[in-house]
Specification:
Helix 1 packs parallel to helix 3. Helices cover 30% and strands 26% of the residues. The strands form 8 sheets. A 6-stranded mixed beta sheet has the order 7-4-2-11-22-21, with helices on one face. Strands 12-19-13-14-15 form a 5-stranded parallel beta sheet. Strands 8-9-10 form a 3-stranded antiparallel beta sheet. The structure holds flavin-adenine dinucleotide. The site of flavin-adenine dinucleotide has 33 residues, from helix 1, strand 4, helix 6 and helix 9.
Length: 399
């Protein structure tokens, strides 16, 4: 561990302290991917005079890259989660289990649903997205949202159990055919078929459909889409493109064209949206309601507030909402929070334009996509597993 450093040297002896034994307070909201790295860095390089508090809605932070494996039954719940209480203990950070529902920027205070508010000197937001129903009628009543993962997992286990009963759902649909929807469709099919087989249930009774509002993997290149289509055909997953879901009913999907598809259970992997409380903070937001930040990851309206991951939109350098960016931002966020605390200028982060996506078919093969290139094979599945497990070890093996 390096020496402890001092905070806010520019403020003088007591300039502007908030009265907590003279210590300044950094409040981290959300245990998202970027904040995991902030916690790790604070544990490795503690800053004298800085008290840090993490407010997290879930005390077990999920890593969504491993969620398809959890659904497929190849990863355990523990494999895919970081225990924030444990990481917080390593970082010397107080962890509050709660949901932030507002920021009073005049008082420099975050409000927490049903709990006492918390004053801050520096604030960092890494709260991800909230499930989006993409305007689908009946989505909230009949759809199962893929996010948040903590909410999805028990619903998935319930669905799996129902599928294995005589009168249970036989037609399963995944709505939204980005990377998450593609992987989830494969994982759901693999698990249901394996469990049915183990119980002597006729697997041919099940049908699996992936519905893309536009085209499959619309953000990827044509070669990746071709591979993905052939993997879906090989797995027996029906693909519906160019006809978005307008309504989810108890026993069917109604598409925009009026076409109906039998459906006993629908899993939503549609794009997420910004939480409604973002608007009330008065912080500048992008057109979709996410926090507008400079390349330093500071809010464009308040340099004491940082935001990273899916909840932030970097002005002029917009990128897709993907875990890979939240992970990459982590070291910059940590570094810039420390620099800001020490009175040094934060440095800009330049996100890469092309990034590697590894899309698993839940059968031991994956498609590797980067910019205009795509390859597929079993090697990429092993590589993805290695990357995911290394990421988790970075935050789990600290204590
Ligand atoms: C099924 C699935 C598979 C995916 N697979 C991949 C993949 O393979 N590769 C990839 O790059 N991306 C993938 N993604 C996208 C990826 O999940 C997100 O881009 C990533 O999780 C964003 O990380 P984050 O740090 O912004 O927030 P999150 O990981 O969403 O974390 C935010 C945290 O903040 C907490 N929180 C939220 N609101 C509050 C609040 N008000 N107060 C306190 N705490 C709060 C939440 O509980 C959560 O733990 C996948 C997504 C899904 C749904």
């Amino acid at each position: 561990m390096s020496d402890k450093r001092t905070m806010f040297p520019q403020d003088g002896a007591d300039g502007g302290t908030t009265g907590r034994d003279g210590r300044r307070r950094l409040v981290l909201v959300g245990g998202g991917h970027a904040h995991l790295e902030v916690l790790r860095r604070l544990g490795l390089e503690p800053i004298a005079g800085l008290e840090t508090v993490l407010v997290a809605k879930e005390l077990n932070a999920p890593y969504s890259g491993m969620l398809p494996g959890l659904i497929a039954g190849t990863n355990s719940l523990d494999d895919c989660h970081v225990d924030l209480a444990r990481l917080g203990a390593f970082a010397g950070v107080r962890v509050v289990h709660g949901e932030v529902d507002g920021i009073d920027r005049t008082a420099r205070r975050v409000t927490i649903s049903g709990q006492a508010p918390l004053d801050y000197d520096l604030l960092s937001l890494d709260v991800g997205i909230t499930p989006g129903m993409a305007g689908i009628r009946g989505g909230a009543a009949h759809g199962i949202a893929g996010k948040p993962i903590s909410g999805f997992h028990p619903k998935w286990l319930d669905l799996l159990a129902r599928c294995l009963t005589p009168g249970g759902p036989r037609e399963i649909a995944v709505i939204g055919a980005g990377a998450a929807g593609y992987e989830i469709a494969h994982a759901v099919r693999r698990r249901i078929m394996a469990e049915a087989d183990a119980r002597g249930i006729d697997g041919t009774a099940f049908g699996f459909t992936l519905v893309a509002g536009g085209s499959l993997l619309s953000g990827s290149n044509a070669c990746a889409r071709r591979y993905a289509r052939s993997e879906l055909i090989a797995a027996g997953v029906r693909l519906v493109e160019g006809d978005p879901v307008a309504e989810i009913a108890a026993d069917r999907l109604v598409l925009k064209s009026g076409r109906e598809l039998a459906c006993g259970a629908a899993i939503l992997c549609t794009p997420g949206r910004a939480a409604p409380w973002f608007t009330e903070t008065g912080l500048p937001l992008d057109d979709d309601g996410f926090f507008a930040v400079w390349p330093t990851l500071q809010s464009t309206g308040d340099d004491a507030i940082f935001a990273a991951g899916d909840c932030a939109a970097m002005i002029g350098q917009e990128r897709p909402k993907a875990g890979v960016f939240a992970v990459r931002q982590g070291p910059f966020l940590a570094g810039n929070i420390i620099r800001r605390a020490e009175g040094r200028a934060p440095i800009p982060y330049r996100p890469q334009r092309h990034y590697l996506a590894l899309l698993s078919d839940a059968q031991g093969s994956a498609i590797a996509v980067r910019g205009p290139f795509a390859l597929r094979g079993r090697l990429f599945s092993r590589w993805k597993d290695h990357i995911d497990r290394s990421f988790m070890r970075r935050y789990k093996d600290l204590l």
